[in-house]
Amino acid sequence: MSTNKILVVDDIATNRTVLRQMLSRITGYTVIEAVDGKESISVFKEENPDLILMDINMPEMDGLQATKLIKQSAGDDYIPIIFVTALTEESSLSNALASGGDDYVSKPFDAEVLKSKIHAHLRIRDLNKQLQANNVELSNVNQQLIREHDLIEHFFKSALEQSYLDERFVNYHMSSMSTFNGDIFFAQRSPQGGLYIVMGDFTGHGLTAAMGTIPVAMIFFKMVIKGMAISDIARELNHQLHKLLPTSMFFAATLVELNAQGNILTAWKGGMPESYWLNENNDLKGAIQSQHMPLGILDDGDFDDKTEIFSVEQNDKFYFYSDGVTEAINPDGEMFGSERLCDALVSTSSNRIEKVLNDISEFKSSSVQNDDITLVELSCHEAPELEPVVECIADNRFSIPWNMSLSLSTSDMRDKDPVEELSETLGSLPVLQRHKGILAALLSEIYFNALDYSILELDTVEKNNEEQFIEYYKLRDERLNKLVDASITFDLSYEPVNQQLLIKIQDSGKGYQGHSSISSDDELHGRGLEIISSLCENVQFSDEGRLLSLIYRL
Amino acid sequence: MIEAKLSNDNQVLVISIKGIFDFSMLNEFRQAYSTNVDAPVKVIIDMRDTTSINSSALGMLLNMQRHLKKDDREIEIINCNDVVKKIFNITHFNKKFSIE
Asked: Hey, which bits of A17-79 come out as E strands?
């Protein structure tokens, strides 16, 4: 244990000696001295004592003044000052304590009393030191917390900036982000023009809740850019959050898509308050109810991605909100509730968000409470044309020519979809990546022409109405199952110089060179060749229609 | 894979087609528009997950149109990718159907 340093301040040497002798009998104390108030200040600064015994009446500077100055200079450090005095009048004593002194002993003093007082004050000083250390630590933690909140805010804002926030479609209010309350709202349009919204509420506040926004934003924006269905987005969010989040954390959410025509709204909703649906005339048309548990709770097998579909009209509006809206409390402890919310919504056709916020703040009047409110309005309109995406094509030109040949036996034709496999394989080549979909369509046309008409000889079978159409595919199945010893061969050559793909398809059938005529637009067949010749050049039949060759430009 | 869903007011039937749309989906597709079809005034074909189509699918769409036109139902084809759109254009299906 370190020794405690005690400063004795007295102008009379005898008094200092008496105190020194008394204190030296107690182990653990060292005694230093000052002869008046003025000197006590400089000794205090140099020696940094743990406790001061202070006389009051001294020349140069008295004990009261010295105490004031020492306390000032000590700041938050607790330096106990005990007056040793002959004064007995109460007013003088209170003066002494008012100047900043912590205690007093009257002369002649009792050694035991002085000892216990010193001991008590040193204990307080120790506690104070501990408190100071804790405060420093706390303040560091607090700084850290502020930095983390800044981070959350930064992240959330940049995610929100990615959002599509055209006021014709989306209006919203979110409480300030000083402490992240777990509410999330993003909106984005898909390449097909559909408008997607995710609005939800993570359990908990602050950093814990904010952690979840990262995967939600990433998954949401990524999947919307691909134009994926709401049910798929819900499933993926649930899958990832279930994997990432601790059991006690989950994400109540509403996911909606308004299609580009603005007439179909698809919603998945789990654990959120109902959303209201109003038309132009301020009629409440309905509500989207929660059908599911929040995201991140169920495993994939138990998760239900079922969505609800709403047939909507132009200028219909939907209102999504966090429970902070209905749970706003007035001074009587009453909640704002969904009835007041509906009343506010149907009372006006413009600025409904503002109206709701005003009503809530009026309702709350003087009651002080947190302001965790998120309110989103979605207006149904036909979507404006999106800026065409300028396709960024990497220069994937492959300079070496190649050939590829694929021979299909009867069982390949029967059991598999060889075209799908072939187009998957071709599509994985960098040079053909961009053409994958069109090549799939093209290969499927030439393959089915060869198989259906040349090998299975179905070209004479009528399919002009639904019954014939079904009959056709029945017959096709029968013939395909009986088929023996047939073959179809694809030959593909890539010519880098001309940037073209030469495609040949040879079959073992009777040959086919196209239907004689397409009698009307309503014919259920005969479009295959139309598609083929529009997509390719140099379409040529030979070998009595058993060999078809064509050129596809890249 | 084909999925059919009715809107909550039973006015709209949304049929989603996943993968390559061709005759392998014939029965599934017919079932999607011929059942559930008492009430809806509109049928929407959602092709967001349709990777490609061929001429057999065009025939299937025409069948559907004939079937539904009897009762004057509206048909809309939405969310087509570029490949599907291109084939609709080549075959002038964009004139016969309302295609987004």
From this structure: 29-34, 51-54
Strands A81-85, A103-106: pairing kind: parallel
Tell me the pLDDT tens digit for each residue of A201-250.
888 777 777 778 888 999 999 999 988 999 999 999 999 999 988 888 89
CA distance A205 to A227: 31
**Measured over all CA atoms, what is the biggest interatomic distance in chain A, rounded to whole angstroms?**
135
Q: What's the CATH class of domain A4-132?
A: alpha beta
Q: To 10 degrees, the CA torsion angle through A309, A314, A315, A319?
A: 10
CATH architecture of the domain covering B2-99: 2-Layer Sandwich (3.30)
Which of residues 39 through 78 in chain B touch A, CB cutoff 8 A? 42, 44, 46, 48-49, 51-56, 58-60, 62-63, 66-67, 76, 78
Say if residues A60 and A36 touch (Cβ distance below 8 Å).
Answer: yes
> Which amino acid is located at A272 in the chain?
M
Identify the top-confidence range among A161-170, A257-266, B4-13: A257-266
The full set of domain ranges for chain A reads 4-132, 162-379, 402-553
A225: nearest CA partner in chain B: B48
Burial of residue A501 (CB within 10 Å: 0-12, 13-18, 19+) is: buried
Q: Which residues does A89 contact at the CB level (< 8 Å), separation at least 6? A: none
Which residue reads 């179809």 in tokens? A488
Contacts of A473 (CB under 8 A, 6+ apart): B23, B26
B8-B11-B15 Cα angle (round to 5): 85
Q: What does pTM read for this prediction?
A: 0.70
The model's pLDDT over A325-336, given as tens digits with 9 standing for 90+, comes to 888 888 888 889
Q: What CATH code is assigned to A162-379? A: 3.60.40.10
Among B83, B28, B62, residue whose Cα is nearest residue A445: B83
Annotation: CATH topology of A402-553: Heat Shock Protein 90 (3.30.565)
Question: Burial level of A219, CB count in 10 A (0-12/13-18/19+)?
Answer: middle
- Say whether A311 and B42 touch across the interface (CB within 8 A): yes
Which residues 463-522 of chain A have a CB within 8 Å of chain B?
Answer: 463, 465-466, 469-470, 473, 521-522
